[in-house]
Design brief:
By secondary structure, the chain is α/β, with parallel strands linked by helices. The chain has 15 helices and 15 strands. Strands 2-1-4-5-6 form a five-stranded antiparallel β-sheet, with helices on one face. It is elongated and about 135 Å long. The two termini are 30 Å apart. About 5% of the residues have low confidence. Keywords: Coiled coil. Belongs to the Sph1/Sph2 family. This is Archaea-specific SMC-related protein.
Length: 650
């Protein structure tokens, strides 16, 4: 979709059977909206409603409902999303605001389960998360395509430059030929004048002269025909030799083929087996991710929400059980069996599920590497088979062509012999005219015939040189177009090669800049600085080792006596860790221009941060977001500005 316009009207949010909400309709305003109230008052469920209407799939259907609906209306537009339980899974339908919610899920919907916040809390690798929306494989493919195009352009331009280097020699050759033509033409004119000057007054002498001229004309014609036949013969012999060389090369290439190579069909069977295994792993990984995400969300909500009003209204006397559930901070109500279990047991199980998913991901990567390798091998074998067939077909055609040309060579050799015999006869006739009376005339005719043949050859050579010069000069326009395209390709390559680096640098700079500003505003007592540093590391991808960039999070603290030391994320307080996670999400929000995709940001689960700092955070985030919706406890909301819009009933 196109970039959103700023939200200028009120926003109506309608929820039916989303999270813990039965039915609710709430109006929000542009700017900051604060959802305030006690725990278990469906504030998180309301945020999930907004997420669902915007396009996220990370919203839950009410546990006792088979269908639900989320609706968002503002600036004259309406966006609806339907949730339905089918075969134990929640299926989404409707017309949401976003077609692809990935960026919003990562950097705009900042609930407790948000991956950016969780990555900082757990000390995970941050680079992978900030770069996830970037399709690096597609960038590499574009780079490979452009590099191939640039090589082709370079080759073509190099050939054109080589043509340019021919021009001086061609121009010089043309001048030499024109000089020779001029000299030869002048000599021919002189010889013709000499023939005219011979005194053959008597009729007999005139007849004799015509007879001599006829004999030499026949001889000249015969020699011209012999040259043509000899040229055809030489051309056929060269073609024959070239065909023999090609045949020898193809036969050598054919002999080099190994007949013991594995069958492509057998490789295809193995590839299908691996793909079936990978599809199975994909299903398993997806199911594990769904289970993990569902359990993380339920754990974040402390299991099932308790409906105290129902207990009171029904006169339930088992107050001890209710009190125990409310006070047991380390216990939650299990959403699979309904019993109370320790949070650490559920978190331990979740960690095992995450480890299992990671193992499945690694196995899937290894399978993909094997599939790629076998596919490449299969392609190579198929190309070899195709090439072998092409060679055999070409060899058969060459044999036929050699037989035809051999026959033609024999015919031309016979014609040369016959024409040479004819010339010998004509020369004998011409020699009969050689006597004292006509000797000079005969010599002049011979020289004239030779020069006329030479002039014809010089003119042909000059025409060939001129055609070559015109061909080279005619390519100047093509050269200009090629140079312009090469410059464009080089610019595109530079942009692609540096795009990932630029995004990484911008992400790091954004985090470091905003983290510095936030720390100066929130004034944590002994934190001097928190920043991200980029470094390169070597990792294994399948069977290859490649260089990848990693983000290292650094924390510098100071003691009461002014000494500084570097600390780790594990030693941050819960408040400090939550703030760091929120700033990291904000960096991703700005680097990926999420504000151009969706005009909302949602904040939840800020209880670990004191109310004064929450107020400062909200004010800081407000500068970057069109519509900010924050869920807070009543006591935390009291520190916020009265100018914000407050929602106290959902």
């Amino acid at each position: 979709m196109s970039s959103p316009k700023p939200v200028t009207s009120s926003i109506t949010v309608l929820a039916e059977n989303i999270g813990g909400i039965d039915s609710s309709e709430v109006t929000l305003q542009p700017g900051v909206n604060v959802l305030t109230g006690r725990n278990a008052t469906n504030r998180t469920s309301f945020l999930q409603t907004i997420m669902a209407a915007l396009g996220s799939r990370r919203s839950s259907l009410k546990g006792d409902a088979d269908a639900g609906r989320a609706e968002l209306e503002f600036d004259g537009e309406q966006y609806e999303r339907y949730l339905e339980r089918r075969n134990g899974e929640v299926v989404f339908d409707g017309d949401p605001y976003l077609d692809d919610p990935e960026l919003a899920d990562l950097f705009a919907f900042l609930l407790e389960s948000n991956e950016a916040r969780r990555a900082v809390r757990r000390g995970d690798e941050l680079r992978e998360l900030i770069m996830r929306p970037i399709d690096t494989d597609e960038i590499e493919a574009e780079i490979s395509t452009l590099e191939a195009e640039k090589r082709d352009l370079d080759d073509r331009l190099e050939r054109l430059e080589q043509l340019d280097s021919e021009l001086p020699g061609l121009e010089s050759k043309k001048r030499e030929l024109e000089n020779e033509i001029e000299t030869t033409t002048e000599r021919i004119a002189d010889l013709e004048d000499e023939l005219e000057a011979f005194d053959l007054d008597v009729e007999a002498s005139r007849d004799r002269k015509e007879e001599i001229e006829s004999a030499f004309a026949d001889l000249q014609t015969a020699r011209t025909e012999l040259e043509s036949i000899e040229y055809d013969l030489e051309t056929e012999r060269e073609s024959y030799a070239e065909l023999e060389r090609e045949r020898d090369e193809l036969e050598a290439e054919l002999e080099a083929f190994d007949d013991d190579h594995e069958s492509p069909d057998r490789l295809e069977g193995r590839i299908q087996e691996l793909r079936a295994r990978k599809r199975s792993l994909d299903t398993t990984v997806s199911e594990l991710q769904s289970v993990i995400r569902f359990n993380e969300e339920r754990l974040a909500d402390d299991g099932f929400e308790l409906d105290l009003e129902d207990h009171v209204e029904s006169g339930d006397e088992d107050d001890g059980d209710i009190t125990e559930q409310l006070l047991a901070d380390d216990d939650v109500v299990c959403w699979t069996c309904g019993s109370q279990v320790g949070r650490d047991r559920i978190e331990s199980t979740l960690e095992r599920l995450r480890s299992l998913r990671q193992e499945q991901l690694e196995e899937r990567s290894e399978l993909q590497a094997q599939i790629d390798e076998l596919s490449s091998r299969r392609k190579e074998l198929r190309e070899r088979t195709q090439r072998r067939g092409e060679i055999e077909t070409r060899l058969s055609a060459i044999d036929d062509e050699l037989e035809r040309r051999e026959q033609r060579i024999e015919e031309l050799e016979t014609e040369v012999e016959q024409q040479q015999a004819r010339i010998d006869d004509l020369e004998s006739e011409a020699e009969a005219f050689e006597n004292a009376e006509y000797g000079d005339v005969i010599d002049t005719h011979r020289e004239l015939n030779r020069l006329e043949l030479e002039l014809e050859g010089l003119e042909d050579d000059r025409d060939d040189v001129q055609a070559r010069i015109e061909e080279i000069e005619g390519k100047s326009e093509e050269r200009s177009e090629l140079e312009e395209r090469r410059e464009s390709v080089e610019t595109e390559l530079t942009d692609l090669r540096t795009r990932v680096d630029r995004i990484e640098e911008n992400a790091v700079d954004a985090f470091n800049e905003h983290m510095e500003s936030i720390l100066s505003i929130l004034e944590y007592r002994n934190i001097d600085r928190i920043w991200i540093d980029r470094r390169e590391k070597t990792v294994r991808e399948g069977r290859r080792k490649v260089t990848r960039t990693a983000f290292d999070l650094h924390i510098v603290r100071s003691t009461d006596d002014g000494a500084t030391y570097e600390d780790t994320v594990d030693h941050l307080s819960e408040s400090e860790r939550e703030v760091t996670g929120l700033v990291f999400a904000l960096a991703g929000y700005l680097v990926h221009d999420v504000y151009e995709i969706v005009p909302f940001m949602l904040l939840d689960s800020l209880e670990a941060i004191d109310s004064t700092r929450i107020a400062d955070l909200v004010e800081y985030f407000e500068e970057h977001v069109d519509c900010l919706v924050v869920a807070l406890l009543r006591e935390d909301a009291e520190a916020l500005s009265d100018e914000y819009a407050y929602v106290r009933e959902i």
